[in-house]
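Much of our argument rests on the idea that a fold can be written as discrete symbols. In the encoding step, the backbone of a single protein was reduced to a row of integers, each denoting a local shape. This step matters because it turns folding into a mapping between discrete strings. For completeness, the protein is quoted in full, as a sequence line and a line of structure tokens:
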Amino acid sequence: MYTQPKALRSVLDGRYLEYMMSEQFDIGNWQECVYWLRGLNDTYRVKTSKGLYILRVYRTEIKEADVKYELEVLSQLKETLASASHTDVGEHIAKKDHSTYTVIDAPEGTRIAVMFRYIDGVENNLEEEASCYAFGQSAAQLHEALDHVVVNQPRYELDTSFLIDQPLERIIHYIGETHEATAFLQTFASTLKERINIASQHGLDVGLCHGDMHGNNNVFQQGEVFTHYDFEWVAKGWRAYDLAQVKARKRQSGEKKDVLWQALLSGYRSIRNFSSEDEQAVDLFIMARRFWVMGLDVAFIDNDMGALDYGEDWLNDFVDEFRGMGIVV
């Protein structure tokens, strides 16, 4: 029973963040801190006398260990990719005391804030073969660099438990075990899990993955270089899962999708191997990604999106989509 007000998710005032953090960084005098983007986390654009920066304030579910892992991966990637021809990563900025993040007491609980350098460049929608080929090269170079990253702390994996079992549990808890869609979703999940397990027996490429590789949504292009950012979901997994997220992008014209996908694969394979088994598994991971997204929707209903748009129409759209994938009759 609540006896005091309880916030589930707040939006922190940029002026408060300036008051809290402006003296922590050697980035010049703060001129503005603008609430820039609401996503899974909150993004602010900070303008100082030295230029523009990006401040990320993580949601309260993200703990210090999660942020430490992400920033350690970024630090090692920055060093490994220093002379890379196709790939760079967003850079976080250490504070004056050499620490890398700030812990903030928000109304809903502890939140962590990290400052990043502002990335110049353009969002490439990957609508031409040349840009898809170039992005494929960049993704391969990123995976190659991730092979050299070593972080000695526990981390979840992008496995079938993360992609299928955990989302299924959240979804059923939300819609109820007696809902008419539950049996189908359980069958779909178990069938998809079985097919991924069978595919993985053929030696799919496994290693650290970006974890959220949409294409234009997590990268800016500067000349011939793609700069990747937003590594919140970086973890060990199947590389085919990373590339599946690019193939499944909805911003490309349907009639060009296959040509653009083949261009991306060609670019990737010009840098590192991507076997025919990996390629065949991509469509399975597109299904797994969509199932994970459904579970992510559920996770944010209570504290972000509200239930109005996540009723029967939302559920039926996903069920119809999964039926259309053809793995369950």
User: Anything to note?
Assistant: The first strand starts at residue 30 and ends at 38. DSSP finds ten helices and eleven strands in the chain. The chain has a mean pLDDT of 95.
